[in-house]
């Protein structure tokens, strides 16, 4: 009973949230910041606190019709307008429309002397009048800690701040209070003790010379939230947070199949190709044709009129287009049509999280049905393999959720062919291995399907040939004890076909021989039969003759007897 | 009034500066009739009578009535006393209970 009530209680009073409009953040916080409560945004200098706060305000004013007030203790209104115009925030117009008020509070320590007790009622009055003047629903105090520098007597200040946050709550405005990161604590002056409903920590980390911005929700009273450190980007249009997580494996799957771009490979994959929305890994040593396979796949995707995003970490767009032309795949018209989009960059150009962020935002923007990452291994140069794996997991999960077919290539080393560097294979649905086969001073390519979840796939090795009309898969020679490819296969095939000819000739000859024999026998039979006929006739005649002779004798005997009798009687 | 003159006369150096600036324009920001604001006003009145007799003007601004005025002088803490004239602007926060500090803050006499 009690537990049931508890459950009910849990469901009923939903914490009202105020959507930030910041890309991705509302997903992590499951709806936004706590409505009508203060939120603390803490972070070191230059990690985007002011931007975060401003975006919250501007999005609120523009998208959610919630007017807001930006109280700045650091920059004056003109500076703010100028700084944010580059991000496409038109603060000038917004202030004119009374949707946003920029207020600059400036305190000069040297001008101020303190005697006796004071309170911050002045600030309250000021904020109160600002809030009431436009009916503000949101307010930003950036950076409230400036007060600590400006006003002595910390005891009073702290008491007053506590009162301020209570007052803001009572006013029902959703507030963001920014604060500098402190040594060993979230904020320099311990503001987190006062603002305890929601604390978001921004961070700007450098690892191996690559900078990554991250965001973490340290606390969110009364609400579920993502707990990870989420990378975020400051882009041309503000902050974009990446809630790409492996929260669960709950994505829907498709039964639809798509071609790999190589008909013979499709036939190896149960005759129909890959599953839509699956992840495919093509691994192989250098020069085994991974990129060519990617190009084939891209081509087939675009030919169906779908969009394909090609992320190349090794070659430039024009280089890929040129190289693929040599195997008969013309990607240029597809690029022109806007179906194929290349994004080429060096892995070391930015941090892993930034790559992830870029990929994420490109996918959001371009909305492709397939994404190719060629090669995925190059990313290991930016992070540890664990990081790369977690990043790829997030990419794959993200793509699966969006039904995007992901095609990765993986450069493997000769001695670890059936192993991926980053342990990727478990994340993949289909794993195709390209392998160089060296026989008789020749290097040929072999293709296997190592695994392909959810479909019957061929266990055969195929020879993988790059022709000027694209990739061709040839069945390798598998007679005898070895598997032969390349010229060895051709030679073997020639030898075999010669043998076959000889054999068939022999057979023909034998057949003719048999025919001949048959005919000879038949001729003999004919001869014997005619002889028999001849003898039979002769015998018949003789027998007739003998019969006639017998008859004559009998008649003569009778006649003689008659005559003799008469003589006697007479 | 007489006593203030005597006191200021004893501090000749301070007196000179005071004499040069003719009127003292002081503005006291408060929010309603709180005990702090009343104390501050009483203290201010006393100090002015003692040190600036006849040369001062006190303007009390109640922010509850005129909240927009808080912006002009960047008033956060209350009560705040602002010395508008003579320039430069000086601000004193608190109930002005420490007379010495008020005098220093207003630059009425150097210690």
Would you write up a description of this structure?
The complex is a heterodimer of chains A (570) and B (111). Chain A is built from 15 helices and 23 strands. In chain A, 41% of the residues lie in helices and 23% in strands. The N and C termini of chain A lie far apart (161 Å). Chain A has helices at 2-11, 25-28, 49-63, 77-85, 91-96, 121-134, 146-150, 154-171, 263-268, 290-303, 317-325, 332-337, 352-366, 385-401, 486-569; strands at 17-18, 33-34, 38-43, 68-72, 100-104, 112-114, 138-142, 174-180, 198-207, 210-220, 229-235, 238-241, 257-258, 274-275, 279-284, 308-312, 340-344, 370-374, 405-411, 430-439, 442-452, 462-467, 470-475. In chain A, strand 9 and strand 10 form a beta hairpin. In chain A, the strands form four sheets. Chain A has a nine-stranded mixed beta sheet, with helices on both faces. Chain A has 570 residues and is of the alpha/beta class. Chain A has two domains: 9-241, P-loop containing nucleotide triphosphate hydrolases (Rossmann fold), CATH 3.40.50; 257-476, Rossmann fold. Helix content of chain B is 42%, strand content 22%. Chain B has one domain (21-106): Glutaredoxin (3-Layer(aba) Sandwich). Chain B is of the alpha+beta class and 111 residues long. The longest helix of chain B has 17 residues, at 35-51. The chains are: A alpha/beta (570), B alpha+beta (111).
